């Protein structure tokens, strides 16, 4: 598995100018779209109609991160919008295996996310059902928080299981990813890196993306 992927989060973009904000990150591998419902997390962002419009105009694939309750009901609708991947939270899904299968059969890659306090061990047996495991490296809900080093052993444990089973599963990290922290996450085994404020909070997102790629390798 290579450390290829930088996914800027549009949570830190200018929501009034989403189309031009997408063009500024054209050199990234995908755009990370944070959907929040003010219930699973104490924040509200955007929903399915906006994701459909982003999908229609984005020059790069969409990586949708659902921070919503009742993932079993809603996640397949996002997959049906034609996005590249849909990630639901394990804490919000009643039947994660069935849901991952549904996402894949709708044509999306299936991702499952874990809050910092959620252990990975109960889910190791279902890694083969996933294309991506998202280890949250901050408490979900807001951009601009500091990377939690306490999540590194979980990344290592997941990476070990993925290597051991020879599984084609990417490990995504999300939260507090900067040129300073990305190396630690990559060293632990992460392969896909979400970065919001460290990309959109800079003068030139393309330069920030290139810097993250260098720092990850
Ligand atoms: O899912 C989330 C927050 O819940 C993220 O995707 C953030 O948008 C990342 O922002 P930074 O920590 O990189 O600023
Ligand atoms: Co996210």
TrEMBL record:
GO MF entries: D-ribulose-phosphate 3-epimerase activity; metal ion binding
Keyword vocabulary terms for this entry: Carbohydrate metabolism, Cobalt, Isomerase, Manganese, Metal-binding, Zinc
Catalysed reactions, semicolon-separated: D-ribulose 5-phosphate = D-xylulose 5-phosphate
Name of the protein described by the UniProt record: Ribulose-phosphate 3-epimerase
SUPFAM superfamilies (UniProt xref): Ribulose-phoshate binding barrel
Pathway(s) the chain acts in: Carbohydrate degradation
Active site per UniProt: 34, 174
Keyword presence, Metal-binding: yes
PROSITE patterns reported in the protein's UniProt record: RIBUL_P_3_EPIMER_1 (PS01085), RIBUL_P_3_EPIMER_2 (PS01086)
Cofactor comment text: Binds 1 divalent metal cation per subunit.
Keyword Metal-binding included in the entry's annotation: yes
Top-level taxon of the source organism: Bacteria
InterPro entries reported in the protein's UniProt record: Aldolase_TIM, Ribul_P_3_epim, Ribul_P_3_epim-like, RibuloseP-bd_barrel
Ligand binding (substrate): 9, 65, 141-144, 174-176, 196-197
Function, in words: Catalyzes the reversible epimerization of D-ribulose 5-phosphate to D-xylulose 5-phosphate.
Family: Belongs to the ribulose-phosphate 3-epimerase family.
Biological processes annotated in GO: pentose catabolic process; pentose-phosphate shunt
EC number(s) per entry: 5.1.3.1
Class of enzymatic activity (EC top level): isomerase
HAMAP family, alphabetized: RPE (MF_02227)
Co-factor(s): Co(2+); Mn(2+); Zn(2+); Fe(2+)
Pfam families on file: Ribul_P_3_epim (PF00834)
Record-listed a divalent metal cation binding positions: 32, 34, 65, 174
GO CC, one annotated term: cytoplasm
Organism: Arthrobacter pigmenti
